[in-house]
Amino acid sequence: MSALTFNLNQTPRHSINCSNLTPDHLAGKTADEIAAMPINYGNSRVSVGDLFEISGTDTQHIVFKNTSNKLDYIGASMSSGTITVEGNAGAYLGFNLKNGEIHCHGNTEAFAACNMVNGLLHINGNTGDFLGAGSEGLRKGMRGGTVIVKGNAGDRVGDQMRRGLILIEGNAGDYCGSRMIAGTIGVLGNLGTYTAFNMHRGTLLLKKQPQLHATIQDCGTHTLPFLSLLFKSLAKYDTQFSKFSTQRVQRFVGDAAYKGNGELLILS
Protein backbone atom coordinates (compact mmCIF):
# COMPACT_ATOMS: atom_id res chain seq x y z
CA MET A 1 0.00 0.00 0.00
CA SER A 2 1.12 3.55 -0.69
CA ALA A 3 1.11 6.23 2.00
CA LEU A 4 -2.07 8.24 2.44
CA THR A 5 -1.09 11.60 0.95
CA PHE A 6 -2.67 15.03 1.44
CA ASN A 7 -1.57 17.49 -1.23
CA LEU A 8 -2.67 21.04 -0.41
CA ASN A 9 -4.39 22.30 -3.55
CA GLN A 10 -4.32 26.03 -2.77
CA THR A 11 -2.39 28.56 -0.71
CA PRO A 12 -4.55 28.91 2.41
CA ARG A 13 -5.51 32.38 3.68
CA HIS A 14 -6.55 31.05 7.09
CA SER A 15 -5.30 28.40 9.48
CA ILE A 16 -6.35 24.80 8.90
CA ASN A 17 -6.90 22.53 11.91
CA CYS A 18 -5.40 19.17 10.90
CA SER A 19 -5.96 17.43 14.23
CA ASN A 20 -8.31 14.83 12.69
CA LEU A 21 -5.90 13.87 9.89
CA THR A 22 -4.02 11.27 11.93
CA PRO A 23 -3.78 7.45 11.77
CA ASP A 24 -6.07 7.22 14.81
CA HIS A 25 -8.94 9.11 13.15
CA LEU A 26 -8.51 7.84 9.58
CA ALA A 27 -8.06 4.09 10.15
CA GLY A 28 -10.55 2.07 8.11
CA LYS A 29 -11.83 5.02 6.08
CA THR A 30 -11.86 5.16 2.29
CA ALA A 31 -10.53 8.10 0.30
CA ASP A 32 -14.09 9.29 -0.39
CA GLU A 33 -14.98 9.13 3.30
CA ILE A 34 -11.86 11.08 4.22
CA ALA A 35 -12.56 13.71 1.55
CA ALA A 36 -16.06 14.22 2.99
CA MET A 37 -14.83 14.75 6.56
CA PRO A 38 -15.38 18.26 7.96
CA ILE A 39 -12.33 20.33 8.86
CA ASN A 40 -11.93 23.78 10.46
CA TYR A 41 -10.65 26.41 8.04
CA GLY A 42 -10.36 29.71 9.89
CA ASN A 43 -13.81 30.38 11.37
CA SER A 44 -15.62 28.12 8.91
CA ARG A 45 -16.09 24.40 8.33
CA VAL A 46 -15.25 22.85 4.97
CA SER A 47 -14.62 19.34 3.68
CA VAL A 48 -11.13 17.87 3.62
CA GLY A 49 -11.52 17.34 -0.13
CA ASP A 50 -12.06 21.09 -0.61
CA LEU A 51 -8.51 21.77 0.57
CA PHE A 52 -6.51 18.66 -0.25
CA GLU A 53 -6.04 16.26 -3.13
CA ILE A 54 -6.05 12.81 -1.52
CA SER A 55 -4.20 9.74 -2.77
CA GLY A 56 -2.89 6.48 -1.30
CA THR A 57 -4.51 4.10 1.14
CA ASP A 58 -2.09 3.38 4.03
CA THR A 59 -3.50 5.36 6.95
CA GLN A 60 -0.59 4.31 9.19
CA HIS A 61 1.77 6.31 6.95
CA ILE A 62 0.53 9.81 6.21
CA VAL A 63 2.29 12.40 4.04
CA PHE A 64 1.52 16.12 3.70
CA LYS A 65 2.76 17.71 0.48
CA ASN A 66 2.82 21.27 -0.86
CA THR A 67 2.47 22.37 2.75
CA SER A 68 2.04 25.73 4.45
CA ASN A 69 2.65 27.29 7.87
CA LYS A 70 -1.15 27.53 8.10
CA LEU A 71 -1.42 23.76 8.75
CA ASP A 72 -1.91 23.65 12.52
CA TYR A 73 -2.19 20.67 14.89
CA ILE A 74 -0.61 18.12 12.55
CA GLY A 75 -0.27 14.84 14.47
CA ALA A 76 -2.29 16.06 17.46
CA SER A 77 -2.84 13.29 20.05
CA MET A 78 -1.51 10.67 17.61
CA SER A 79 -0.86 7.27 19.22
CA SER A 80 0.55 5.20 16.33
CA GLY A 81 1.92 5.39 12.81
CA THR A 82 4.06 8.00 11.07
CA ILE A 83 3.44 11.43 9.59
CA THR A 84 5.81 13.12 7.14
CA VAL A 85 5.51 16.84 6.36
CA GLU A 86 7.32 17.65 3.12
CA GLY A 87 7.67 21.35 3.84
CA ASN A 88 6.67 23.78 6.57
CA ALA A 89 4.10 23.16 9.29
CA GLY A 90 1.99 25.49 11.38
CA ALA A 91 1.57 25.79 15.14
CA TYR A 92 1.10 22.90 17.58
CA LEU A 93 2.91 20.28 15.50
CA GLY A 94 2.79 17.04 17.54
CA PHE A 95 0.46 18.54 20.15
CA ASN A 96 -0.14 15.94 22.89
CA LEU A 97 1.69 13.32 20.79
CA LYS A 98 1.21 9.96 22.54
CA ASN A 99 3.27 7.68 20.28
CA GLY A 100 4.45 7.25 16.72
CA GLU A 101 6.77 9.48 14.68
CA ILE A 102 6.42 12.86 12.99
CA HIS A 103 9.08 14.13 10.60
CA CYS A 104 8.86 17.73 9.39
CA HIS A 105 11.29 18.60 6.59
CA GLY A 106 10.76 22.36 6.93
CA ASN A 107 10.11 24.95 9.64
CA THR A 108 7.31 25.04 12.20
CA GLU A 109 5.46 27.74 14.06
CA ALA A 110 5.12 27.98 17.86
CA PHE A 111 4.14 25.27 20.39
CA ALA A 112 5.66 22.26 18.59
CA ALA A 113 5.64 19.17 20.88
CA CYS A 114 3.35 21.05 23.26
CA ASN A 115 2.08 18.65 26.01
CA MET A 116 3.87 15.76 24.24
CA VAL A 117 3.62 12.40 26.05
CA ASN A 118 5.73 9.96 24.00
CA GLY A 119 7.01 9.24 20.50
CA LEU A 120 9.49 11.06 18.23
CA LEU A 121 9.22 14.49 16.63
CA HIS A 122 11.97 15.39 14.15
CA ILE A 123 12.16 18.94 12.72
CA ASN A 124 14.72 19.55 9.97
CA GLY A 125 14.36 23.33 10.03
CA ASN A 126 13.61 25.96 12.68
CA THR A 127 10.79 26.02 15.19
CA GLY A 128 9.01 28.82 17.05
CA ASP A 129 8.46 29.69 20.70
CA PHE A 130 7.36 27.30 23.46
CA LEU A 131 8.86 24.12 22.02
CA GLY A 132 7.94 21.23 24.35
CA ALA A 133 6.09 23.60 26.66
CA GLY A 134 2.61 23.52 28.17
CA SER A 135 -0.35 24.89 26.22
CA GLU A 136 -2.36 27.87 27.41
CA GLY A 137 -4.10 27.26 30.71
CA LEU A 138 -2.16 24.08 31.55
CA ARG A 139 0.76 23.69 33.96
CA LYS A 140 2.20 20.55 32.38
CA GLY A 141 4.65 20.83 29.51
CA MET A 142 6.26 17.95 27.64
CA ARG A 143 5.88 14.70 29.65
CA GLY A 144 7.95 12.26 27.57
CA GLY A 145 9.28 11.36 24.16
CA THR A 146 12.09 12.80 22.04
CA VAL A 147 12.28 15.99 19.99
CA ILE A 148 15.15 16.68 17.57
CA VAL A 149 15.51 20.12 15.96
CA LYS A 150 18.21 20.50 13.31
CA GLY A 151 17.83 24.29 13.18
CA ASN A 152 17.01 26.98 15.75
CA ALA A 153 14.28 27.24 18.37
CA GLY A 154 12.49 30.30 19.73
CA ASP A 155 11.89 31.49 23.29
CA ARG A 156 10.72 29.41 26.27
CA VAL A 157 11.99 26.01 25.11
CA GLY A 158 10.79 23.38 27.59
CA ASP A 159 8.71 25.78 29.68
CA GLN A 160 7.18 23.67 32.48
CA MET A 161 8.67 20.53 30.90
CA ARG A 162 8.25 17.45 33.14
CA ARG A 163 9.97 14.59 31.31
CA GLY A 164 11.52 13.71 27.95
CA LEU A 165 14.39 14.81 25.73
CA ILE A 166 14.78 17.87 23.50
CA LEU A 167 17.89 18.18 21.31
CA ILE A 168 18.48 21.45 19.43
CA GLU A 169 21.46 21.64 17.07
CA GLY A 170 21.13 25.37 16.42
CA ASN A 171 20.37 28.29 18.75
CA ALA A 172 17.66 28.71 21.36
CA GLY A 173 15.99 31.94 22.42
CA ASP A 174 15.33 33.55 25.80
CA TYR A 175 14.13 31.69 28.90
CA CYS A 176 15.29 28.24 27.77
CA GLY A 177 14.30 25.72 30.46
CA SER A 178 12.08 28.22 32.27
CA ARG A 179 9.98 26.67 35.07
CA MET A 180 11.34 23.27 34.03
CA ILE A 181 10.29 20.40 36.35
CA ALA A 182 12.39 17.52 34.92
CA GLY A 183 13.78 16.12 31.67
CA THR A 184 16.76 17.03 29.49
CA ILE A 185 17.29 19.83 26.98
CA GLY A 186 20.42 19.92 24.82
CA VAL A 187 21.51 22.98 22.79
CA LEU A 188 24.62 23.17 20.61
CA GLY A 189 24.31 26.82 19.58
CA ASN A 190 23.87 30.10 21.42
CA LEU A 191 21.18 30.83 23.99
CA GLY A 192 19.33 34.01 24.83
CA THR A 193 18.93 35.64 28.22
CA TYR A 194 17.45 34.21 31.42
CA THR A 195 18.38 30.60 30.69
CA ALA A 196 17.00 28.26 33.41
CA PHE A 197 14.85 31.02 34.88
CA ASN A 198 12.85 29.55 37.80
CA MET A 199 14.09 26.06 36.86
CA HIS A 200 12.96 23.48 39.45
CA ARG A 201 14.83 20.33 38.38
CA GLY A 202 16.12 18.72 35.20
CA THR A 203 19.22 19.11 33.05
CA LEU A 204 20.35 21.58 30.40
CA LEU A 205 23.17 20.10 28.30
CA LEU A 206 24.93 22.97 26.53
CA LYS A 207 27.88 23.43 24.22
CA LYS A 208 28.26 27.17 24.87
CA GLN A 209 27.91 28.95 28.20
CA PRO A 210 25.08 31.49 28.09
CA GLN A 211 24.80 34.68 30.08
CA LEU A 212 23.48 33.44 33.44
CA HIS A 213 21.54 35.40 36.04
CA ALA A 214 22.65 35.77 39.65
CA THR A 215 20.68 32.82 41.07
CA ILE A 216 22.54 30.24 38.94
CA GLN A 217 25.55 28.97 40.92
CA ASP A 218 28.89 27.76 39.53
CA CYS A 219 29.90 24.35 40.99
CA GLY A 220 33.21 23.95 39.13
CA THR A 221 34.50 21.40 36.63
CA HIS A 222 33.49 17.74 36.92
CA THR A 223 33.97 14.39 35.18
CA LEU A 224 30.61 12.69 34.66
CA PRO A 225 31.01 9.16 33.22
CA PHE A 226 27.27 8.78 32.60
CA LEU A 227 27.57 11.24 29.70
CA SER A 228 29.30 8.60 27.57
CA LEU A 229 26.29 6.32 28.00
CA LEU A 230 23.94 9.18 27.20
CA PHE A 231 25.70 10.04 23.95
CA LYS A 232 25.84 6.38 22.89
CA SER A 233 22.12 6.03 23.52
CA LEU A 234 21.53 8.80 20.98
CA ALA A 235 23.20 6.87 18.13
CA LYS A 236 19.77 5.65 16.95
CA TYR A 237 18.76 9.24 16.20
CA ASP A 238 19.93 11.57 13.43
CA THR A 239 21.60 14.12 15.69
CA GLN A 240 24.99 15.76 16.20
CA PHE A 241 24.76 14.95 19.92
CA SER A 242 25.55 11.28 19.23
CA LYS A 243 29.03 12.28 18.03
CA PHE A 244 30.16 13.60 21.42
CA SER A 245 32.19 11.53 23.84
CA THR A 246 33.44 14.03 26.43
CA GLN A 247 32.81 13.48 30.13
CA ARG A 248 34.18 16.84 31.34
CA VAL A 249 31.70 19.61 32.07
CA GLN A 250 31.43 22.92 33.86
CA ARG A 251 28.46 22.42 36.17
CA PHE A 252 26.05 25.07 37.34
CA VAL A 253 22.99 24.58 39.57
CA GLY A 254 19.84 26.60 39.94
CA ASP A 255 17.57 28.37 39.90
CA ALA A 256 18.57 29.08 43.54
CA ALA A 257 15.49 31.26 43.81
CA TYR A 258 13.57 27.97 43.59
CA LYS A 259 15.57 25.48 45.71
CA GLY A 260 18.36 25.20 43.08
CA ASN A 261 17.85 21.54 42.09
CA GLY A 262 18.25 22.04 38.34
CA GLU A 263 21.61 21.70 36.61
CA LEU A 264 23.38 23.20 33.61
CA LEU A 265 26.23 21.14 32.13
CA ILE A 266 28.56 23.01 29.79
CA LEU A 267 30.45 20.48 27.65
CA SER A 268 34.23 20.91 27.45
In terms of DSSP E residues, the strand content is 25-35%
Query: Average pLDDT across residues?
Result: 96
Strand order in space, largest sheet: 5-1-6-8-9-10-11-12-13-14-17-16-15
| N/C terminus separation | 49 Å
Shape: elongated
Number of H/I helices: 4
- For the secondary structure, the number of strands is 17
The SSE order reads EEHHEEHEEEEEEEEEEEHEE
By oligomeric state, this entry counts as single chain
Major sheet characteristics = 13 strands, mixed
Rg result: 19 Å
Low-confidence stretches: none
Query: What structural category do the secondary elements indicate?
Result: mainly beta
* Share in helix: under 10%
List the helices and strands and how they pair.
Blueprint: E1 3-8, E2 16-17, H1 23-26, H2 31-36, E3 38-41, E4 44-47, H3 48-51, E5 52-55, E6 58-65, E7 71-72, E8 82-85, E9 101-104, E10 120-123, E11 143-149, E12 163-168, E13 184-187, E14 203-206, E15 217-223, H4 226-233, E16 248-254, E17 262-267
Describe this structure in words.
The chain is mainly beta. The protein has a domain at 110-267. The chain is built from four helices and 17 strands. It has helices at 23-26, 31-36, 48-51, 226-233, and strands at residues 3-8, 16-17, 38-41, 44-47, 52-55, 58-65, 71-72, 82-85, 101-104, 120-123, 143-149, 163-168, 184-187, 203-206, 217-223, 248-254, 262-267. It has a 13-stranded mixed sheet. A two-stranded parallel sheet has the order 2-7. Strands 3-4 form a two-stranded antiparallel ribbon. β3 (38-41) and β4 (44-47) form a beta hairpin. It is elongated. The termini are far apart. The mean pLDDT is 96.
